[in-house]
Write the structure tokens for this entry.
Amino acid sequence: VTDKVPVTLDFLHRLARQRRYPLSDLAGQCWALTVGTIPSYAYVYHMWDTLTTGYLGVPDLITTRQVCCEVVPNGPSAGRTVEVTDGGRLIQAADDVDVNAFLNYVLELFRR
């Protein structure tokens, strides 16, 4: 679900408009460092950790479902969690998010 919440240039512009708030300024500077550093044809960076921890503040914006999964232990995908049909561990996994409401929540937090 974290891949559904990209840090878009539009979001960064919204964040820049509230630069007078110290947290907004810090977050904007940190995310600005990612612009142009990700090797792809277009800027793509996601709120992986931000959405994950944001669940604690606004769990109602994220829906979950039960899945069986396992963690890839080796290779380039080491640490990645994958859904499996046989074996694995049953967990509650985030499945969807209200993207606009979540982005508004993040911006509001950074105004504090």
Q: What stands out?
A: Strands lie at 62-71, 81-83, 89-97. The two ends are 26 Å apart (CA to CA). The CA atoms of residues 34 and 40 lie 12 Å apart.
